[in-house]
Amino acid sequence: MGKLETTQQVDAIVIGSGITGGWAAKELSEKGLKVLMLERGKPLEHGTGYVGEHEPPWERNNKGMRPRELYNDEYEIQSTSYAFDETTRHFWNNDQQNPYDYNEEDPFHWVRADVVGGRSLLWARQSYRWSDLDFEANKKEGIGIDWPIRYKDLAPWYSYVEKFIGVSGQAMGLDQLPDGEFQKPMDMNVVERHVASAIADNFEGRAMTIGRTATLTEPLPGRAACHYCGPCHRGCSTGSYFSSLSSTLPAAKATGNFDLRANALVESLEYDPDTKRVSAVKVIDTVTGERSRYSAKLIFLCASTVGSTQILMNSTHANSDISFANESGALGRYMMDHTYRAGARGIMPGFEEYYPYGNRPNGIYIPRFRNVEGDDGLGFTRGYGYQGGAGRLSWDSMSKATPGFGAEFKEGLRKPGPWYMTLGGFGEILPYAHNTVALHKSKKDRFGIPQVTFHFEFGENEKRHREDLVEQAVLMLKAAGATRIDPYNTEMVGGAAIHEMGTARMGHDPKEAVLNAHNQAHAASNLFVTDGSAMASASCVNPSLTYMALTARAVDYAVTQLQAGAI
Amino acid sequence: MQRREVLKSLAVVLGGAVSHACSQALEVPAAQRVAVAGVMTDEQRAAVYRCADLIIPTTDTPGAIEAGVDEFLDYVISVWYTEDEREVFFAGLAQILDEAQSTYAQPFIALKEPQQVALLQAAEAREPVADPFAPGRSDQGFFIKIKELTVTGYYTSEVGATIERKYLPMPGFYDGDYKFSEVGRLWAS
User: Which H/E stretch holds residue A464?
Assistant: First the structure.
């Protein structure tokens, strides 16, 4: 099964180059450790790799039409994302080449990249802190297990991360959505400000603000302020939004302690039960098929929630099919996501003299207002926040709504259509033991690794908060004077919000949790898992900022322990 | 743009129908070329192009065909459409071509513009207007299809983005209170 490559110089291996892998590599290498990063995806260079960036519409592949057959055959899951098209396809996983067991009767969308940088290239950049409302909820309600940390443990690491990645936003002074280290906020447009004041005037305890986004409004070293071209997910050669490629990987490289190997798929971890350590990382070169093994003092597993869980489940004790990391039985269970694709939109009459300049890669945010001061008695626990924004309809919608054709029709389309306002909810999904990712018993990938299979269902709590969020979105739009209000509540699919998390959760008790309070595996002192799999609950805010803060904190702990001889 | 200019001058030299086939051949990969050549008759193709120019005519800015929408139409109709979509499209087109004969005793393409407009209006009357909040309906007939294709092809063309609209690839800042009177057109980016 290949030769043992002992790389003496390597102190730490980081598996995955996405948003948490990048942070682990930066922190470890800056602390003087020699780091090897393993990424299953293809190599990609910052700038030159962004082949769809700034591509004019008339130069687009297939003249902008989606090649439907190709998408159906090879990108069945990935092409469901709003960010997937011919300007970004080279970043994404090919579902035919790297499949999982997708079941239409029990659907789960595993949305994944397949390049260096991972989903940090494609993320929507919304960056919100958790609060103790989130960290204490499991314990207070007896749901899942208690978080082994509180807000005060993470607050300094939020600050540390925010200063480096650059988060623009507005301080609000809310306990349930703590303020951060903000760059100057982006502007709300004239209609959004109107809606914000209508909400403030008519709904106690509710507020609307500009989104907090990891997109720069002020330059940082090596990165320019946003130029407002619009589609960030095509890549940004000015580094104006945070990604591994624009930010953490250059910082890691600058230390001289960092090495990256792409096309390096981690198959499993080898475990030594005597030392209770991971003794080797087993790697397959996705181009040559060659297998190799690497060893290091520290292993940071940052391969994404599903990716990391798959690797752990495939890392079994000798002569056993039980993962060394699964003494708790929690591995692969308690999968969460956020509820998504529910809300309301409406036409906002007036304001016709205004037509925004520039493409702001950000929207508005309405922080959670349900069950904040206690149980609101609405028949559900936890809550939701809204994202959305206001804009004017353009030729693509207005041409459909305008009858006729000819010179008059053409002239009519020179003016933008009416303003619309959208409020879309993101709601907290509770941790249920029956929502799982597991290894399929017979289906394997092209390298013989068991494919993953999912079971995901939504509970009554999720259904109820969704009904409430649709109703409240309608009421807020009405209060702002919207007409033609169109509530929407489309069928929920697990994974569709691309906030999947929780399948290797943190917790004090090794009998209940995979990881301890520092993201360290209970079963292996030199293994840290810092991506979304570590989460014990989901909050309703976008999770990536929290993953990054957890990663920086875990590295600090790991290196201290290593230096103290405890690892 | 340069290659397009070359193709257009070729078109002048070679004359209408041949030039379209010629520019098509240069634009489309070999495997697709067969499909493009085989799907539409010359009569159908000329009528489709004429409809596109009736939908977005040349005014103070170029119209659909001048903007190169003909190539886009060829691609979508011949390559991108499914068999079912093509069937709906050509059935609707056939009705217009038949009505040209039965009403005016001439081919559609030979009719005067007001007569062509009347036939296209009659086709439009057979199909409902879409709701801007509910795009992508499955009951589209010929008129909605040709109108949407023409509009999409036009506004995403270089002419449609830079002459008909105001092309702003690098705004540099965001102003949510900007005045429409300062722009006068739709933005393109």
Answer: helix A460-479
Chain A contact set for B172 (CB, 8 A): 227-228, 358
Cα A374 versus chain centre, distance? 29
> What is the C-alpha separation between A424 and A394, in angstroms, rounded?
20
From A243's Cα to the closest Cα of chain B, the distance in A is 20
Report d(CA A234, CA A83) in Å as an integer.
8
pLDDT class for A455, splitting at 50, 70, 90? very high
- The pLDDT tens digits for B148-181 are 999 999 999 999 999 999 999 999 999 999 999 9
Tens digit of each residue's pLDDT (9 = 90 or more) over A458-485: 999 999 999 999 999 999 999 999 999 9
pLDDT for the residue B6: 32
Q: Is the pLDDT of residue A305 over 50?
A: yes
Picking from A370, A398, A364, A365, the residue whose alpha carbon sits closest to that of residue A384 is A370
Whether residue A267 is contained in a domain is answered as no
Closest CA to B177 of A419, A24, A150, A225: A419
What chain B residue is nearest to A418 in terms of C-alpha separation?
B132
Range from A529-538, B37-46, B73-82 that averages highest in pLDDT: A529-538
List chain A residues with CB under 8 Å of B76. 63, 65
Q: What percent of chain A has pLDDT over 90?
A: 96
For chain A, the average pLDDT equals 96
Q: Closest approach of chain A CAs to the CA of B3, in angstroms?
A: 13
pLDDT at residue number A189: 98
Which residues 6+ apart lie within 8 Å of A494 measured at CB? Answer: A107, A108, A109, A335, A337, A435, A454, A456, A457, A458, A500
Q: Which of B116, B180, B182 to mutate to test the interface with A (most CBs of A within 10 A)?
A: B180
Length of chain A, in residues? 567
DSSP per residue, A153-210: HHHHHHHHHHHHH-EE------SSS----EEPPPPP-HHHHHHHHHHHHHSTT---EE
Tell me, yes or no, whether A322 lies in a domain.
no
Distance, in angstroms, between B2 CA and closest chain A CA? 13
* pLDDT, tens digit (0-9, with 9 covering 90-100), for A224-272: 999 999 999 999 999 999 999 999 999 999 999 999 999 999 999 999 9
Q: What is the mean pLDDT of residues A477-502?
A: 96
Q: Specify if A215 maps to a domain.
A: yes
Q: At what angle do helices B113-125 and B83-99 cross, to 10 degrees?
A: 130
Domain enclosing residue A348, as ranges: 174-222+338-428+457-493
Report the residue of chain A nearest B183, measured CA to CA.
A355
Say if residue B95 is exposed, middle or buried (CB neighbours under 10 Å; 0-12, 13-18, 19+): middle
Distances in Å between the alpha carbon of A42 and those of A16, A38, A80, A260? Answer: 12, 11, 22, 11
Residue written as tokens 């509540």?
A489
pLDDT of residue A61: 75
pTM: 0.93
Q: Is B29 exposed, middle or buried (0-12, 13-18, 19+ CB in 10 A)?
A: exposed
Pairwise CA distance, residues A207 & A201, whole Å: 9
CB contact under 8 A, A415 and B75: no
Tokens of A43: 């190599």
Helix (H/G/I), strand (E/B), else coil: A32:
coil
For chain A, the domain total comes to 1
Given this model, what pLDDT does residue B135 score? 52
Please write the tens of the pLDDT for every residue from A92-137. 999 999 999 999 999 999 999 999 999 999 999 999 999 999 999 9
Which of A153, A211, A174, A135 lies closest to A390 in space, CA to CA?
Answer: A211
Return the structure tokens found at A216: 């720069």
Residue A89 belongs to a domain:
no
> Which of B120, B139, B175, B179 has the most A C-beta neighbours within 10 Å, making it the best mutation to test the interface with A?
B175
